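As noted in the main text, all predictions were made from sequence alone. Below is one such record, for Carbohydrate ABC transporter permease.
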Amino acid sequence: GFIIWPREFTLENYKAAFQNKDILQAFKISVIITIVGTAINVILTGMAAYALTFKKMPLRNFIIFMIFIPTVFSGGVVPTYILYRRLHLLTSIWIYMLPGLYGFFNIVIMRTFFESIPIGLSEAAYIDGCSEVGIFFKIILPLSKPIIATMVLFIAVAQWNDWYTGAFYVTKDSIRPAATLLQQILNEADVMSNISTLNEQNIYLSASDMQRTVTPDSLRMTFVMIITLPIVCVYPFLQKYFVKGVMIGSIK
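Prediction:
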């Protein structure tokens, strides 16, 4: 049964988890797609948002409309799967990053913040011979650290928690992220069957020790903690930016 206070302190569940190669590989994939995907997404979203701040930009309203449409309408799982297959993404780690290189909501938030920056700064830099790319990277981005931190948090959390892509589209087990592995484990009736390589990893636990310290329920909770802890550790440092970003979006 369940007890409020544990009988003894033990890390056997964490040892069992981290000595499993599948879990370590899934965690590695999650770290890669979170760092790389977030960096690319923030840069491209920022560039798109900056371009859309110019009201005289050709086809500006049409571009905004085309960006907005996929937010409302989705092609569905089957058409998306066919598209990914034709793009040879089903066995590539880029399947987690390329389809979500921008988000309409994130573009709106960043554009709103960029519009609050005095245009005189950009005009002065342009008169001094600075290009639009230079203005964006040397003036706009350094003044936009709060909104960049907000976008990093938004996008990183979305990338880290993306179990859907790995569960429905990816056909290669070695590139499935930790969130997908966690979802599979939580759906398994017996967690032990999902980590059948424990004995091969030289984890020598007696039958009584295994029953007492490593149980299906305890392993489930261990995996939940492993997946949740990175975001929990990062969030307090970005909380004020997170609230500010939400306020900007709600006002818009």
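Residues 196-211 have pLDDT under 50 and may be disordered. The first helix runs from residue 12 to 18. These features were considered when defining construct boundaries for the mutagenesis experiments described in Section 2.9.
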